[in-house]
Design brief:
The complex is a heterodimer of chains A (about 160) and B (about 575). Chain A has about 160 residues and is α+β, with helices and mostly antiparallel strands. Chain A folds into two domains: about 80 residues, ACT domain (Alpha-Beta Plaits); about 70 residues, ACT-like. Chain A, domain 2 (Alpha-Beta Plaits). Chain A is built from four helices and nine strands. In chain A, strands 5, 6, 7, 8 and 9 form a five-stranded antiparallel β-sheet that branches. The longest helix of chain A has 13 residues. Chain A starts with a strand and ends in an 8-residue tail after the last strand. Chain B contains 23 helices and 20 strands. In chain B, the strands form four sheets. Chain B has a six-stranded parallel β-sheet, with helices on both faces. In chain B, strands 11-10-9-12-13-14 form a six-stranded parallel β-sheet, with helices on both faces. In chain B, strands 16-15-17-18-20-19 form a six-stranded parallel β-sheet, sandwiched between helices. The chains are: A alpha+beta (about 160), B alpha/beta (about 575). The interface between A and B is medium-sized, with 20 and 17 residues.
Chain lengths: ~160, ~575
């Protein structure tokens, strides 16, 4: 099962490598990982997307909690939550394609951030499945480059992770 | 009045003093010279100079195991730190509280591939409870305080503090914090009351109960509570390799060690019980063998451990209790005592009758009439001669298992071995650490001719400090445990397990200024041991017992098999 694990950790040098090292040492998989400081500069928030059986996920959360730099761990998948990912796609856009690309970006509520005489760079935000759908909708031949951030997640409503 | 500022090196030494450290084990080098200069100037603690950094860490580790205090080691950067890694990993696997101070190249040189530079924090990360790189002298005292706090609390473990050389030169105001609190680290000590109630109830309902104790009972100072609970209920008890001494071995309720080389009665009772209480133990592969085989028999499991991640890791449990094992067991005792319910006497009687049948197979028997020295006999005699009151350290292999099986540990912290990592070369430096802590105690290092050669240089340290420990070398000419596996599982192809041209250990001991004795006949075993602990009480005695080269450790559960699939003699 796919799980989104969210955590708050001390914004110390090396904290990221402790998390990454834990996953590789214990053979857990990381599908994506995002991290950045929070509004409190002493804390970083990390979102990890991983897969595993219930037993494995239980161990992952316990092992994460055990890391000294980690303040809080929450499996967002345990309750309702929102997840978003940002993708930048550079596509070939020449001749008739330019109009077609613009329409496609509109349908997916993407924004064109950069234009050259042969390319568009489009920003799309949403759950991973929406980004996948956007890429699927494009002719693979026009995709020149993609960058994805990996998912960030947050609980819905009153579900708040803070210290 | 403005406070005098201290240099980083002075701060390190002041912190150790204020932490109440009495002994540190180490080896100097460029990056720690400032610290050593301050060590030279002080008299608050003793520094024991070893002959290899690995030994410093093992000695500090064993010091911690024997005393319950945090062990302290100090090494230089680069090779000093990498040599220490095996010792750190050993302590990590066995959850030993330890602080290791490593020197580092100056902050400006970090990342420049400087002389004796290594990424110590990176290298040690997977084998420490936590580690720190101190980049600012103003953080030094608080970091050292945190290191001791983290090492000793919760599930204990080693903490590395990496200090660049320039940080030891810079100065600042020194104030050692009396306590420390960390928002990211709050170990749970008090067990959940509802779970404790449930556990007591489940224990009383048992028809075929079993109590399984691990290293956590020793480390968590819970031996007296566990002993009280076992006796209160009259239930059978077993210990892991790491837990030996947590329950007095000579007691009839004790079924001996369990696991790969455990007794029939302990392994069978573990497999066939209906309620299992696990205390400070982690169901590891050397203990329960194949978890699928273990799960074949239905049983309810109560698991007490200070580390939540130890619970339901290899085996699903029914009543998990996270907390300090001594506190939790104490609470269970209170619950049992306050209720009216008592164990089911007739079911218990039938269960004990079954256990006695297993016990009657006498799985630890061996040929006592043999004309050669049997290694088991040496350990039995060691037990007799020391009155069961010695601190016994060991290395890793057959001799370790025989020491565990035949020396009946009655007290915690007396049996000191590398259980988790299985580090050959641990025994001698460990014995040094114990003897430094307890100068008047009997300390025996049970070892093999393979293991002893992995840190034999420490005989020199022993001479410098006149450590009167006794080396009990069970010399069978083979890497015995390797040879045993090759005999059983590799059709007797003894690949590289025979050591040709061993040194003359008597001369070797004498070369280092100690007493060496070779014992070749069974009838000479006891007199030699009596001499070692009597006539040569104040000297290090190296006893080279030439033992039966073909003896094996029984019972044995082959790797990947289940508890009831033992190979017997």
């Amino acid at each position: 099962m796919r799980h989104i694990i969210s955590l708050l950790m001390e914004n110390e040098s090396g904290a990221l490598s402790r998390v990454a090292g834990l996953f590789s040492a214990r053979g857990y998989n990381i599908e994506s990982l995002t991290v950045a400081p929070t509004e409190d500069a002493t804390l970083s928030r990390m979102t990890i997307v991983t897969r595993g059986s219930d037993d494995v996920i239980e161990q992952i959360t316990k092992q994460l909690n055990k890391l000294i730099d980690i303040v809080k761990v929450q499996d967002l998948t345990d309750g309702s939550h929102i997840e978003r990912e940002l993708m930048l796609v550079k596509v070939r856009a020449v001749g008739d394609q330019r109009e077609e690309m613009k329409r496609m970006a509109d349908i997916f509520r993407g924004r064109i951030l950069d234009v050259s005489d042969k390319t568009y760079t489009i920003e799309v935000t949403g759950p991973g499945s929406k980004l996948d759908a956007f890429l699927d909708a494009l002719d693979p031949a026009v995709i020149l480059e993609t960058v994805r951030t990996g998912a960030s997640g947050i609980g819905r409503g009153d579900r708040i992770m803070k210290i | 009045m403005a406070d005098k500022e201290l240099t980083g090196a002075e701060i390190v030494v002041s912190c150790l003093r204020d932490e109440g450290v009495k002994h540190i084990f180490g080896y100097p080098g460029g990056a720690v010279l400032n610290i050593y200069d301050e060590i030279y100037k002080q008299n608050d603690f003793k520094h024991i100079l070893v002959r290899h950094e690995q030994a410093a860490v093992h000695a500090a580790d064993a010091y911690a195991r024997a005393t319950g205090e945090v062990g302290v080691a100090i090494v230089t950067s680069g090779p000093g730190a990498t040599n220490a890694v095996t010792g750190i990993a050993t302590a990590y696997m066995d959850s030993i509280p330890m602080v290791v101070i490593t020197g580092q190249v100056p902050t400006a040189a970090i990342g420049q591939d400087a002389f004796q530079e290594v990424d110590t924090v990176g290298i040690t990360r997977p084998c420490v409870k936590h580690n720190f790189l101190v980049k600012d002298v103003r953080e030094l005292a608080l970091t050292i305080k945190k290191a001791f706090y983290i090492a000793a609390t919760g599930r204990p473990g080693p903490v590395v503090v990496d200090i660049p050389k320039d940080v030891t030169q810079h100065a600042c105001h020194y104030d050692y914090p009396a306590s420390v609190s960390m928002r990211s680290y709050n170990p749970t000590n008090k067990g959940h009351a509802g779970q404790i109630k449930k556990a007591a109830q489940m224990l009383l309902e048992a028809k075929r109960p079993m109590i399984y104790t691990g290293g956590g009972v020793v480390l968590g100072n819970a031996a007296s509570q566990v002993t009280e609970l076992v006796r209160l209920l009259g239930y059978p008890a077993t210990s892991t390799l790491m837990g030996l001494g947590g329950y007095p071995a000579p007691d009839p309720l004790f079924l001996g060690m369990l696991g790969m080389h455990g007794t029939i009665e302990a392994n069978m009772a573990m497999q066939h019980c209906d309620v299992l209480l696990a205390v400070g133990a982690r169901f590891d592969d050397r203990v329960i063998g194949n978890p699928k085989h273990f799960a074949k028999e239905a049983r309810r499991i109560i698991h007490i451990d200070v580390d939540p991640s130890s619970i339901s890791k290899r085996v699903r449990v029914d009543v998990p209790i996270v907390g300090d094992v001594a506190q939790v067991v104490e609470e269970i005792i209170k619950q049992v005592k306050s209720g009216k319910e008592r164990p089911d006497a007739s079911a218990l009687k039938a269960w004990w009758a079954q256990i006695e049948l297993w016990r009657a197979q006498d799985c630890l028997k061996y040929d006592r009439a043999a004309p050669v020295i049997k290694p088991q006999f040496v350990i039995e005699k060691l037990y007799e001669v020391t009155g069961g009151d010695a601190y016994v350290t060991s290395d890793v292999g057959q001799h370790q298992m025989w020491a565990a099986q035949y020396y009946q540990f009655a007290k915690p912290r007396r049996w000191i071995n590398s259980g988790g990592l299985g580090t050959m070369g641990f025994g001698l430096p460990a014995a040094m650490g114990v003897q430094m802590a307890y100068p008047d105690a009997m300390v025996a290092c049970v070892t093999g001719e393979g293991s002893i050669q992995m840190n034999i240089q420490e005989l020199s340290t022993c001479k410098e400090w006149n450590l009167p420990l006794k080396i009990i070398l069970l010399n069978n000419g083979y890497l015995g445990m390797v040879r045993q596996w090759q005999e059983f599982f590799y059709e007797e192809r003894y690949a590289e397990s025979y050591m040709n041209s061993l040194p003359d250990f008597v001369k070797l001991a004498e070369a280092y200024g100690h007493v060496g004795i070779t014992i070749e006949k069974p009838e000479d075993v006891e007199p030699a041991l009596r001499d070692a602990f009597g006539k040569h009480k104040d000297k290090l005695v190296f006893l080279n017992f030439l033992t039966d080269p073909r003896e094996n450790v029984f019972p044995m559960i082959p790797a990947g098999k289940g508890l009831s699939e033992m190979i017997l003699v």
